[in-house]
Amino acid sequence: MASLVWTMPTSSSAFSLFSRCSPTQRNFVAGRSLAPNAVRCELTEPVNGNPCVPIISEQTLPKFLQSKRLENAIARNGNTRLKIFSGLANSALSQEIAWYMGLDLGKIHIKRFADGEIYVQLQESVRGCDVYLVQPTCPPANENLMELLVMIDACRRASAKNITAVIPYFGYARADRKTQGRESIAAKLVANLITEAGADRVLACDLHSGQSMGYFDIPVDHVYCQPVILDYLASKKICSNDLVVVSPDVGGVARARAFAKKLSDAPLAIVDKRRQVHNVAEVMNLIGDVKGKVAVMVDDMIDTAGTIAKGAALLHEEGAREVYACSTHAVFSPPAIERLSSGLFQEVIITNTIPVLEKNYFPQLTVLSVANLLGETIWRVHDDCSVSSIFQ
Q: Please, what are the domains in the chain?
């Protein structure tokens, strides 16, 4: 397995939106070719289980983003009406977002009382400002969700003009419908809580299902992280004729089909599974041909890794040469690490929407940063520009 090694940029402008590994590779964002001086990835051996986080130079920034940054550089540096605050759930990602945007994180004081109650106080004025609160509702989901709600309430009571909840990972998204009698639809409940707390807009990454956007009575910007993973896969020296994209279940077929279309319209395979109870998957059959091919399994999240691990075992039984796992959200509930590091996968590619603890690192793990993508999306929302054009 090969890992990427990137040099650390020396300024906030050194982040770019997506990785570019060859001048001739397809630009998934703007549909254009890259500049001749684009930087090529350097492939080396694994770094003893430490995941690589791609950080690239300004030279690789797509042209339409370069011009936009130049036009707004002065205005952005002097902008005092946009404030970014971070919760405690993923402060590293918040720092990266602020770095990309050329801003400093807002000062905020968050603490727990002895009985576990959450206290939030803003340490600077937000009156009349557009405020962005970065807080994924990842495990511990209830703690982080409540922290987000209290942060929103603090901003509302401090007379912020607009409050946007930036939720890289939206917890409770799987409870988006009733599959059995007497079940709750927790995704709708959480959406109501965020709205009633005072949020004016939500910015979320790769929701479990698109219907979750309809649960909010406020605007929702849905950020797709696929381009980040696609650009990384483009750096792999894999012949397009050898690729097959695999959906680990029937529910993810639409996601996998969109992914396959961007990978030179690769063929699609589907793992048919039957789930008896939550977090326990039973693989039944494979639809499609994977013999002698490099299989890329695509899902929105990896929780206990039961679904994707059993799917990978089936792919190997059916003759797949290599299996890659690609997922936006790395929940990694036990025993996910044991399953993912068991040798079934050539590489496990995730993003940093959820922080990965160092104890959960393993040699096949690669972590890609979505900070540039979120930072650019925040600027476009603030500037009243199109967000969807990023993903066209």
A: 3-62+226-369 (3.40.50.2020), 79-225+373-391 (3.40.50.2020)
